[in-house]
Amino acid sequence: MPSIYDLKPRFVALLRPLAARLAQGGVTANGMTLAAMADSMIVGLVLAIWPEVTWLWLLLPLFLFIRMAANAIDGILAREFGMKSRLGAILNEVGDVVSDAALYLPFALLPGVTPFWVILAVVIAVIGEMTGILGQVVGASRRYDGPMGKSDRAAIFGILGLAIGIGAPIGGWIDWIMAAICLLGLVTILNRARQALKEAAG
Predict the structure, then answer these.
(1) Cα(61)–Cα(152) distance, rounded to whole angstroms?
(2) Domain of 11: which CATH number?
(3) What radius of gyration, in Å, describes the C-alpha atoms of the chain?
(4) Considering only CA atoms, which of 179, 41, 60 is closest in space to residue 120?
(5) Range of the domain at 144
(6) Helix-then-strand count for the chain, H and E
(7) Number of domains within the chain
(8) Is the peptide bond before 147 cis (omega within 30 degrees of 0)?
(9) What is the pLDDT along the chain (202 residues), one digit of tens a residue?
(10) Has this prediction a pTM greater than 0.90?
C-alpha cells in the first residue's frame, strides 16, 4: 500500500548537500539520532505540561518536519560517510519509537480527548515498527509498508497539532481520528508481516 515514505528518496536528495557540510563539521550519524530523540522528549514534555496552551501545539508540526529531516540526514551520514554501525542501527529504531511516544502521548492530556485511543494508537505504532524490524529476522528486508508508517503518522499528528494550534475546537472528533489511525496501523502490521513472509519465501 502507498505511504508518504515513498517520497523519501526525493527528500534525501535535497538534504544530501547539508549532510555533507555537517559531516565536514564533525557531526556524526549517532549524534544526530540522539539529538533528535532528546529534542522529541523535550517538545513532548512541554506539550504534556501545558496541553491547554493551544499555541504551543504549533511546535509539533514544525518539530516533526525538523525531526524528519534529522532522520534523513543521519541515514545519509551512516550510508555515505562511513558512519554505519550496529549501535547506530539500534539507536535509530529505539529513537524512532521513543520519539513517537514522547510527541504523540500528550494528545491524551487534551480536554475532551479519550486517552484510550491515543495510547492505543501509540501502542499499535510500536508494534508496527517492531513488525517492520522482524522482516530482517525472517530473512527479508526491514519493511516500511503502509498505509500508516512513521512518515504517515507524522503527517497526521502534525496536521492535528497545526489545527489545535490555530484554534480548532478540541473534542471528540480527535477520538475518531485516533481510532482511524489505530485501524490503519493494524492494516500496516498485517501488510508488513505478509510482505516480509512473501519476500523471505521468494
Answers:
(1) 13
(2) 1.20.120.1760
(3) 17
(4) 179
(5) 4-201
(6) 7, 0
(7) 1
(8) yes
(9) 666 666 677 888 889 999 999 999 999 999 999 999 999 999 999 999 999 999 999 999 999 999 999 999 999 999 999 999 999 999 999 999 999 999 999 999 999 999 999 999 999 999 999 999 999 999 999 999 999 999 999 999 999 999 999 999 998 999 999 999 999 999 999 999 999 999 999 8
(10) yes
